[in-house]
Amino acid sequence: MRQTGGMSRLAGPSLLPQERTWRPGWPCPVATILSPLRRGAGDPTHLLELSGAVWRASRTPDGPVTLRICSLDGAGEVRAAAWGPGSGWALDRLPTMLGASDDPSGFEPFQPVLRRAWRRFVHLRTPSTGLVLESLVPSIIEQKVTGREAWTGWRNLIRRFGEPAPGPGGATGMRVPPSPATLAAIPSWEWLRMHIDPARSRTVVRAARVAEALERTIGLPFEEVDRRLRSLPGVGQWTSAEVRQRAHGDSDAVSFGDYHLATMVGHTLTGEPIDDEEMASLLDPYRPHRHRVQRLVELAGSLPPRRGPKMAPRTHLPG
Fold it and tell me: pTM value?
């Protein structure tokens, strides 16, 4: 996330926010819980203060919102301020966004490295934003490309077709993701200029055209959510998992098909590289907490030394 020393000076009398204080009952690591929502360095929808407060620019069912969230562990509180027409919706969903509906009971890691990681990140929870398209669009853009290429495409999309975030967020350059109607109307040549190829852009447009149906998957059983997401052409196992992890709070959704995940999980838990099939077997005893294991590995795991060539960004697209 981009970082800043402080933001309160930007909120003048005409930009007074709606506010909420939530007492979660545990020290809530806001920045760590919300970190999967960030899409690369310079994501225009995210900003991180040096204090650890997180700023998000989102498009809620009630309209755009800028949200600032900080954790006061000493007081056992999470405090949030929101600007824009989506403020009430975002503040109502604050606990769920920060994992209040995620139940880690029954999670008992048996590998020493996971036990150590769980002791360190015992208050980690799976977020649930309740915003499906917001998670789906960047996940589609990240399909089968390097992180650098994916994050560049996402930044280009937000900067070209998003809108300034409400309140003080807009003053920092933060932007709200495009509406479904805007996404569906972007012509093919504009997608190419943003370095997003036709296969991915077509999937984004299809998703935007059925955005209302996708948003109705919130609250459904995770198996049904997966079925409905994967019924959309261009959305497969990996993309569905990435969305369920963020929008639906699915702590069992594993990102099978990820370029690095199986290697990282294998190296962390066994000391050897493994493939997806072996990772599935290794994680199976942890149901329904397999994504929790994935997050712990991402936070505290390690990759073996690189000995082969990296996946190279493509250079044949304009932009």
Answer: 0.90
